[in-house]
Design brief:
heterodimer, A: 530 residues, mainly alpha, Alpha-Beta Plaits, two-stranded antiparallel ribbon, 60% helix, B: 455 residues, FAD/NAD(P)-binding domain, 3 domains, 5-stranded parallel sheet, binds flavin-adenine dinucleotide, binds iron/sulfur cluster
Chain lengths: 530, 455
């Protein structure tokens, strides 16, 4: 085997390809920015917080910008993956593990021990440490002190913007990549970061609401406190709540039908946004093995079943027993949910049985488990307890395991180990719903260009969702996979121009072939028509 | 499962035989042609299949060798099938070098000493790099770029630009330019010796060929056109020290020499057998050799007579695959000819992708009746050449650089024998570039119309 593999495990010379002096300076600038944050974390009390915060964030941005310009603008346009499997940081080398560790610890502290970041640790209950450094910015935007979530949101947005810029330079020959990246940068900055702050300024009773974060990704949207907060805020609150419901039941199905789930996963979503920008250097690390695909399907659908049941359970606990309070009683609600799921299930089985093939059995199992769980819920649930467990406890367990550990600690912390879309692939219930639609009711597919594939594997290598794209391309078959987020990188890196992301008619979208275009037409007819 | 399939599969003859005795198909070579054949034979039948190779344990994609050196991919990602695939599909793999084929006793003899019997033998042994008897061509640090072992050698002699201060590439074809790109990715200075007066101009029309010349140079590669290698000089340890240029006598110091002056069939091990050889293994249209039950496919097969405009030896990926698809039918009882459809091919020259559909010949090789329409974008990275019959206007083929086009569309147009006007006017139907890319069909059309007026 290649003797290159060991390169990445050495600390002394982590990068097979040296970086230029200018890039070293850029790195130093960026690290200075990070160093200021570290000092703040260690409780250094900066005299002028606004100044130091500006310096810190500014340095990080300037460092990344200079570094990227030097990396990409000094070369001709084209695919820039040289050495990605040699560099320690992007090939699970020592630096990769170190980065993974740092990120993971950050997430653990963030979710479970925010006091170490300085949350309300001051004598007067104010912030200290890292969080206090962000107070001036938070004051500026919404007139309140920062929280750990504000710090996180700011750094998250910063990462998407800075690395988004880098990504745009890297793919400066590819308009699809550029436009999509501008889109994620816009949605992160506007919808996830600024608008919620401004909404708070306008009406500080409204819960934090990132309009583009849709249930079930936004797992607490239909929780009692959230719904109450919306409902107690008159028309705006009601409108937002209605929007939340429409998002999942009307808007996303229509858009997924027209464009595939990519419209969300790689154009809008914040998790996807971070993966595509800051996580870009790790996309090739996702496992392409069939075993990983099997695990993925079980995991992501279990999470989906879990989140449907949990959300139903949460809503269930705060609904009344009889019609006098409100027309939506528990009986009505649970019947409605079961009816809806059954309708979806039956119509899929009726219309799409053929396309599902072996997956039909798995789908049926998932469906029946869900229904059984809901029935158990209905016959055993009380206001306080669901599944004999205190509902509050269950809810917070869901928040911790799925919301925090999976999406943050493993999903992002493990970028350098599992690749940049581990959460999107194995854990995101939203991805499961959109993927299901994409597989069955969407115009989207990746078209294969006749017989041109040379089985080189660049496409599979760089698929962040671990799809073995080559498996389809080398058979001349279109790629119609539920997990594909439509990032378009497989198409970009293909050296033979074999792949094209397209929205076209549903007919002929799935086209299994045995003999590829270019061979004897009679033979193709003979074998392929069977 | 498979057994049931075989028994109910009407296309499989020898039914009764199969139940008692499984015919043994032995394939020499685990490249695309041999592996495609094995997969299809497995789909169609229950025969015993063994693939023999000396190169690697498992099938890998030769076309991706460069990406391993450049660090885009790991070797394991060049293997299109996971390692469990072979056992699951009951395709036996044997590693070993076939030294001799005894067709009278239907036996292979291995260099390792053992032997293997076959009922049907398929030779899919591929190619080897050409060496033209240059002085010093076997020195340490001189290598072709074909087998996995060549890549390992390159990794040894050219790991970085400290150990390899300069590399010289001899021969301007598709593999040569890939090797240049590889070395370039590790900042190793490259001198690229090309015998022709312009890169690959035996195949490409001049407008395209010259655009590629400029592109190569823009990557800071020292491209020397109309330049031949005279000899390779050795240092005191038998390692490459420099090369001497034929025309000028100039000595270029270097640590690695890449010989990429084409490939030829890898058939030396058959010299003592009774199988008829030309440059490759001679086959008829059914891919049968002169000996019963012995076939040849892929790079090593040589047609008695060329098929259409094709060459008798077609050393490209796609034809290997198509021959595999076809021969599997014959071996499983559906005797059919190798009848490839319209020609197509593709490559990538550093950052510029190239695709071709139908036939476009270079000025050097084209017939009188073939006329060309050439369009080039001002950024010098995109161009197309459309070939048509100058009297009938029939569309003959297209070369496209920097713009992806649809195989299926051109295949249809070629079958329908469209004329050049139709093709140029409907070019947007064939566009295969990613969404949001700039489109050039209008420019092309107006250039075409202008051409018509001046012509
Ligand atoms: C660097 C490179 C890039 C290329 N790029 C392209 C491209 O972009 N497009 C394209 O169309 N084509 C390309 N080609 C050509 C293409 O790879 C070949 O046409 C194709 O691989 C030939 O396949 P094959 O199955 O005939 O033989 P091979 O792939 O050569 O396989 C033959 C196998 O048989 C083994 N073998 C030979 N003799 C013996 C023996 N006596 N005993 C045991 N084993 C033996 C060999 O070791 C080898 O493993 C490229 C080739 C190279 C080297
Ligand atoms: S298949 Fe292609 S477009 Fe889809 S996720 Fe993978 S790399 Fe992205
Ligand atoms: S990158 Fe392109 S040529 Fe290579 S395997 Fe994928 S589709 Fe085929």
């Amino acid at each position: 085997m290649s003797n290159k593999i060991n390169h990445s495990m050495s600390l002394a010379k982590p990068d097979a390809l040296d970086i230029t002096t200018k890039q070293k300076v850029a790195l130093a600038i960026g690290i200075t920015g990070l160093f200021i944050l570290t000092l703040a974390l260690l409780n250094t009390n900066f005299p002028n917080k606004a100044l130091f915060l500006t310096l810190s964030l500014g340095f990080i941005i300037i460092g990344t910008v200079i570094y990227s310009r030097e990396a990409y603008l000094t070369k001709l346009e084209g695919i820039k993956n040289d050495g990605q499997w040699f560099k320690s940081i992007s090939s699970r080398g020592v630096w990769g593990w170190i980065l993974g560790l740092v990120l993971t610890s950050f997430y653990i502290v963030l979710y479970f021990y925010p006091k170490y970041l300085g949350l309300r640790q001051g004598v007067d209950g104010g912030n200290t440490g890292l969080i206090s450094l962000f107070d001036p910015l938070s004051q500026l935007l919404s007139g309140r002190n920062a929280s750990q979530w504000f710090v996180y949101g700011t750094l998250y947005t910063l990462a998407i913007l800075a690395f988004g810029y880098k990504f745009i330079l890297k793919y400066r020959h590819n308009r699809y990549q550029q436009i999509r990246t501008v889109s994620v940068m816009f949605f992160q900055l506007g919808f996830a970061f600024l608008i919620p702050e401004f909404m708070y300024v306008m009406n500080n009773d409204l819960p934090y609401y990132d309009l583009k974060s849709i249930w079930p990704l936004n797992y607490y949207l239909f929780d009692e406190w959230s719904v109450n907060a919306f409902l107690s805020n008159g028309n705006i609150g009601l409108a937002l709540l209605v929007f939340g419901i429409l998002s999942i039941f009307v808007i996303t199905p229509i858009l997924t039908y027209k464009f595939g789930k990519r419209f969300y996963c790689s154009w809008v979503c914040g998790c996807g946004g971070l993966a595509e920008t800051a996580g870009d250097s790790f996309r090739h690390l996702s496992s392409k093995k069939i075993s990983a695909w099997k695990l993925e399907r079980w995991l992501v659908h279990s999470v989906l079943v879990f989140s449907v049941v949990m959300t139903t359970a949460m809503v269930y606990t705060y609904l009344g027993y009889d019609k006098n309070d409100f027309w939506l009683t528990r009986d009505v609600f649970i019947s409605f949910i079961i009816g809806f799921l059954t309708l979806v299930f039956v119509s899929v089985m009726y219309f799409k049985r053929q396309e599902l093939g072996k997956d039909a059995r798995a789908g049926a199992i998932g469906f029946f488990i869900t229904i059984v769980l809901l029935l158990i819920l209905h016959f055993t649930g009380t206001t306080e307890h669901v599944f004999y467990i205190k509902s509050g406890a269950l809810r917070s367990a869901y928040g911790i395991y799925i919301g925090s550990i999976f999406s943050g600690v493993i999903g992002t912390g493990f970028y350098p180990i599992l690749g940049n879309r581990a959460w999107c692939r194995f854990g995101c219930p939203m991805a499961a719903i959109l993927g299901f639609q994409q597989r069955l009711f969407s115009k989207f597919r990746i078209t294969t260009n006749g017989g041109q594939c040379i089985s080189c594997g660049n496409c599979s290598n760089s698929c962040e969702m671990g799809i073995d794209v080559r498996h389809y391309a080398q058979k001349g078959e279109n790629i119609v996979r539920s997990s594909c987020v439509g990032c378009g990188i497989c198409s970009a890196v293909c050296p033979r121009g074999v792949l094209k992301l397209e929205n076209d008619s549903m007919k002929g979208r799935i086209n299994p072939t045995e003999i590829l275009l270019g061979n004897d037409v009679n033979l193709m007819d003979l074998v392929n028509q069977k | 499962m498979i057994v049931i399939k075989v028994l109910t599969n009407p296309s499989t003859n020898n039914l009764t035989n199969n139940q008692y005795y499984m015919e043994h198909i032995v394939i020499i070579g685990n490249g695309i042609s041999g592996v495609t054949l094995a997969r299809h034979v497995r789909k169609l039948s229950n025969k015993k299949i063994t693939i023999v190779s000396t190169e690697t344990d498992y099938f890998f994609s030769r076309t991706a060798l460069m990406y391993i050196y450049m660090g885009h991919m790991k070797f394991e990602y060049t293997q299109p099938y996971e390692n469990w695939f072979w056992k699951k599909n009951r395709i036996e793999l044997k590693k070993g070098y076939v030294k001799n084929v005894d067709t009278n006793n239907k036996t292979l003899q291995f260099a390792e000493g053992d032997s293997l019997e076959y009922d049907k033998l398929v030779i899919a042994a591929g190619s080897k790099p050409n060496k033209f008897g240059w002085v010093g061509q076997d020195l340490e640090g001189v290598m072709g770029m074909y087998h996995k072992q060549d890549l390992d050698k390159l990794e040894e002699y050219a790991p970085n630009n400290e150990i390899c201060k300069r590399a010289v590439i001899v021969g301007g074809g598709l593999i040569g330019i890939e090797l240049a790109e590889m070395l370039n990715s590790r900042s190793i200075p490259v001198t690229f010796l090309v015998r022709e007066s312009s890169f690959w101009n035996g195949v490409l029309p001049i407008g395209e060929s010259e655009m590629i010349n400029r592109h190569i140079k823009s990557h800071h590669i020292d491209l020397r056109l109309s330049t031949n290698l005279k000899e390779i000089k050795s240092d005191e340890n038998g390692k490459v020290k420099s090369v001497i240029i034929e025309e000028t006598g100039e000595e270029i110091p270097c640590n690695v020499v890449g010989l990429t002056a084409g490939v030829s069939p890898n058939v030396d091990f058959l010299k003592d057998s009774e199988i008829e050889l030309g440059r490759g293994v001679k086959v008829n249209r059914f891919l049968e050799t002169n000996i019963k039950d012995v076939y040849a496919i892929g790079d090593c097969a040589e047609q008695h007579e060329a098929i259409g405009n094709r060459r008798p030896i077609e050393a490209v990926w796609y034809t290997g695959r198509m021959m595999g698809e076809t021969l599997a039918q014959t071996i499983c009882g559906n005797h059919i000819e190798y009848k490839p459809g319209h020609w197509f091919n593709s490559a990538k020259f550093m950052d510029i992708e190239y695709q071709t559909y139908g036939w476009v010949f270079s000025e050097r090789n084209k017939k009188d009746e073939e006329a060309h329409f050439h369009w080039k974008h001002e950024d010098d990275t995109k161009c197309i050449t459309v070939a048509y019959h100058k009297d009938t206007n029939k569309f003959l083929g297209i070369n496209t650089f920097g713009i992806r086009m649809r195989h299926e569309t051109f295949d249809t147009w070629l079958t329908e024998e469209r004329d050049v006007d139709y093709v140029i006017n409907n070019l947007s139907e064939a566009n295969f570039d990613p969404e949001f890319y700039n489109k050039f069909e209008k420019d092309i059309l107006s250039a075409y119309n202008q051409n018509l007026q001046t012509a």
